[in-house]
């Protein structure tokens, strides 16, 4: 099925004339497979394992702080310096980085705005920016909006390994920056020490900037630990770190994030942020100070609880017949491979999964460099870019159990999803 067919029909009226009014870059933006699946999931009231937001409550101590800030009438534009002070302490303690709380931090509306402002602050028209393939889909759009050119560096399945030769092959004299997201969406990969050293070495040798997305910094499993690329030799002066409260504190709707960068870049990001949104939500800035001061036990139990959820969903999906060669080392996602016998593309599989079982997950193709459409699939049906389905496990135990039960109703005598046999 062509992805556009997933969209709820909208009446655009004089669509053609109005499209001519759009900017060139806006005309290139299409709804992603994730948005399309989410629309379908909403309209069919499906259990949502598609989107990366928790369906369980946020921690009471930070909710109390936000309520107290609202009751104290923190209602106006605001910059809460306490966030920067906490972040400077955190960066020293966790990564050994000396960060000046007065000059090196910009508070933004989530990592999303911090990333967009970082790109707008550093990327000129025609600059090339390296992105790993697969990666979170927002980066490419931000780079395109800035006039930059995203250039993909493929990670090798099934473990999504970085081959340093492929990294260098993607580089040109127009390469300005590289984007690193670790722990990674969609694969759950935590980049290894060797891989981080290869990236840092290339940045230093080629004089690239690095823009990191560390939103899953506190969600790692087994013996994995998050290392900030900026902590490698020679990297702090060329790295823009972006992160947020969203995932660590289960508050994706609070829109509270930050960028940490050398002073002149942080200052440019602050200026752009002020022009675009002025300030992050005042009450949630107050609550962020409380969040960032959470005891270590909070972060330990976050990790433990997510590890249990990861183990549950991996076991469930393997039982249903998915192939999981790579167990997530971090993040809130599992990138499960369709079995060889399944002849459906990822897009068709995800839409059928909603229709037949009432469970929503995301087709993996949106995270790769091109969105393959079904009419291209006959030639290349086994291309790995259309063989993955992303499941989000940042859901309550009850939701995960419901999803398991629903899918469990549609299995063959081996316990595998019947859907794998569809054509
Ligand atoms: C890798 C990654 N970065 C950033 C975000 C969004 O972060 P924020 O809510 O802070 O804008 C997401 C959300 O799913 C994500 O997966």
UniProtKB/TrEMBL annotation:
One of its GO terms (molecular function) is transaminase activity. It holds the Pfam family Aminotran_1_2. Residues 45-367 form the Aminotransferase class I/classII large domain. Signal peptide: none annotated. Gene3D superfamilies: Aspartate Aminotransferase, domain 1, Type I PLP-dependent aspartate aminotransferase-like (Major domain). Keywords: Aminotransferase, Pyridoxal phosphate, Transferase. CDD domains: AAT_like. This is Aminotransferase class I/classII large domain-containing protein. It comes from Nelumbo nucifera.
